[in-house]
Write a structure and sequence with these properties.
Helix content is 17%, strand content 29%. The strands form four sheets. Strands 5, 6, 7, 10, 11, 12, 13, 14, 15 and 16 form a ten-stranded mixed sheet that branches. The protein is an alpha/beta fold and 313 residues long. Helix 2 packs across helix 4. It has six helices and 16 strands.
């Protein structure tokens, strides 16, 4: 749809202010312009000079020109509606990048996983550590044998115990928000197939460490086997302690990643952050980033997603 914005006559040079013989006698014009099936109306008003017979008042000093402006478009899955607040919709079971009329584009997502290279990789000249980690650890190595043929599909895939290996786009987004650096100590809550634990290990390098915790015994075994194949000895997966969220005995952690949806911001995990540490956790349907600076906590929201629920008992 076309938008219309007033343009000062001065933008047309002296002719807009004093009129010129060539423009005298021009009348107001109306044009009907079709754009993608929507009509935009462009009017050219009052450009006649003194003594002219044109529409509008004579003497172009008081004339206005309405110029067609292209409507603002959304080219990515996220938009900024207010400062510090990023909005996106990620929905499992929906086609990739489905745009609904009047809505933010819909991009699909899930909980734990990724293919050989993350979709949505930002165009940039500097090396992208997340993209490099994806290339080093193809998703297929962390999927059950019956799902490996679908490794390149940008969608969540089932693993075991009602859990899933997340959509690659979702995993890449979470890792970029978390932004771990070499040497960080990282806690991966809900390690699932072990894929996020392994990716985090690549990002922090041998100088860092990664602990994945998982509630389901079959996924603990599956994740450990996958992690062993990746040969990243500074990362490990342990069974979650019943009634305990995260790893308070091993805290503080510089980075904490949660691959399940909490009903509210989990204070127990915020308490396990180091000073300057960052937590990425879906709260309800909203991807939430928490940074702890001393006794202060800063929270920002980064889009809407669907995850399996986080068990917090």
């Amino acid at each position: 749809m076309l938008g219309f914005a007033p343009v000062s006559p001065s933008s047309f040079g002296d002719a807009g202010a004093a009129g010129v013989p060539e423009l005298a006698g021009l009348v107001g014009l109306a044009g009907l312009v079709g754009l993608a099936g929507l009509a935009g109306l462009v009017g050219l008003v009052g450009l006649a000079g003194p003594g002219g017979a044109g529409g509008g008042e004579s003497g172009g000093a008081s004339a206005l020109v309405w110029a067609a402006q292209p409507a603002r478009t959304i080219s990515t899955a996220t938009t900024t509606s207010t400062p510090g607040r990023r909005r996106a919709i990620v929905d499992e079971g929906m086609p990739d990048r489905l745009t609904r009329p009047g809505k933010t584009p819909v991009v699909r997502g899930g909980d734990n996983g990724a293919m050989g290279e993350p979709p949505g990789e930002p165009p940039q000249q500097a090396p992208d550590p997340v993209a490099e980690a994806f290339r080093r650890l193809p998703r297929a190595g962390f999927l059950p044998s019956d799902q490996r043929a679908s490794a390149a599909v940008d969608a969540a895939l089932p693993i075991a115990a009602g859990q899933s290996n997340s959509q690659p786009r979702t995993v890449a987004a979470m890792l970029r928000l978390l932004a771990p650096v070499p040497g960080d100590r990282v806690l991966d809550v809900g390690s699932g197939s072990g894929w996020t634990t392994a990716l985090l290990a690549v990002l922090v390098g041998p100088a860092g460490s990664v602990l994945g915790v998982e509630r389901h015994p079959e996924l603990v075994a599956f994740g450990r086997a996958n992690l062993a194949s990746a040969r990243l000895p500074w990362a490990r997966i342990e069974p979650a302690t019943p009634g305990v969220l995260g790893d308070p005995s091993g805290a503080p952690y510089r980075r904490i990643l949660v691959s399940a949806s909490a009903r509210r911001l989990p204070a127990a995990l915020v308490a396990q952050l180091d000073d300057g540490g960052v937590l990425i956790c879906p709260v309800g349907s909203t991807m939430t980033r928490v940074r702890r600076d001393g006794d202060r906590v800063r929270v920002s929201e980064h889009g809407e997603y669907r995850f399996v629920p986080l068990v917090e008992d």
